[in-house]
Design a protein that fits this description.
This protein has 222 residues and is of the alpha/beta class. It has one domain: TIM Barrel (Alpha-Beta Barrel). The protein has nine helices and twelve strands. The strands form three sheets. An eight-stranded parallel sheet has the order 7-6-5-4-1-12-11-10. Strands 2-3 form a two-stranded antiparallel sheet. A two-stranded antiparallel sheet has the order 8-9. The longest helix has 14 residues. It is globular.
Length: 222
């Protein structure tokens, strides 16, 4: 497991991939972020495949985050991740069949934990329930977890801190990292990764997309 905390740039807004994702990536592909991704909707699969291929050509590691809550939808997302050559499948509610597919195709699987509903997603449940769920999934062989920490209906910072401390696996804090206060929490808690999507489009960290990415990467390192 990498010791640093990684930024995963998501070309998404309100949990949906933006229509001009390819254009934005071309403008920002020399930015410092190593990990890039987007959601399973609404781009056509052919466009997704082309964009992921381009990301790989630029030396990036790639993630597909699937905001779906049935086993069948999760499997469809896993098949899409395999078609696109993604390194990571994030999201879905855990299922043995999804894990088996990811193992067969060399994809690292990071399912949601807790009770996740809606789009944009909302997270419910107790930290204890989520930690127990995560440990059971780890015994089966998942790579890590997609924790919707700042979408939590309870104390988000406390949940993230406790989960990262107790779960001995990569944790990606996904969604709603939209302020320097939250970046400071990421620095203090040091999860394996966190995502930023909508906040970049809302210019929460500056006026230009690439500048925001580099600013966040440098801030999290110092």
């Amino acid at each position: 497991m990498e010791s640093k905390t990684n930024l995963i740039v998501m070309l998404t807004y309100q949990d949906r991939t933006v229509e001009n994702a390819r254009e934005i990536f071309e403008q920002c592909h020399e930015a410092e972020a190593e990990y890039w991704g987007f959601k399973e909707a609404p781009l056509p699969p052919e466009q997704m495949e082309q964009l992921y291929r381009r990301m790989k050509e630029c030396g990036k590691k790639t993630a597909l985050e699937v905001v779906a809550y049935s086993e069948q939808e999760g499997l469809e997302g896993a098949r899409l991740a395999a078609r696109c050559g993604c390194d990571l499948l994030m999201g879905t509610l855990y299922a043995d069949s999804i894990l088996a597919f990811c193992r067969e195709h060399g994809i690292r699987y990071m399912p949601f934990v807790g009770r996740v509903t809606g789009r944009p997603s909302v997270l419910e449940g107790t930290p204890e329930e989520m930690i127990a769920q995560a440990r059971a999934c780890l015994e089966k062989g998942v790579f890590g977890f997609d924790l919707l920490g700042y979408r939590y209906t309870g104390d988000a910072a406390a949940l993230i801190r406790t989960f990262v401390e107790e779960v001995k696996a990569p944790v990606c804090v996904a969604g709603s990292v939209d302020s320097y206060e939250k970046l400071d929490q990421m620095k203090a808690i040091a999860p394996w990764a966190f995502t930023i999507g909508s906040a970049f489009f809302d210019k929460k960290f500056g006026d230009d997309f690439r500048g925001q990415i580099d600013r966040v990467c440098r801030y999290i390192r110092t």
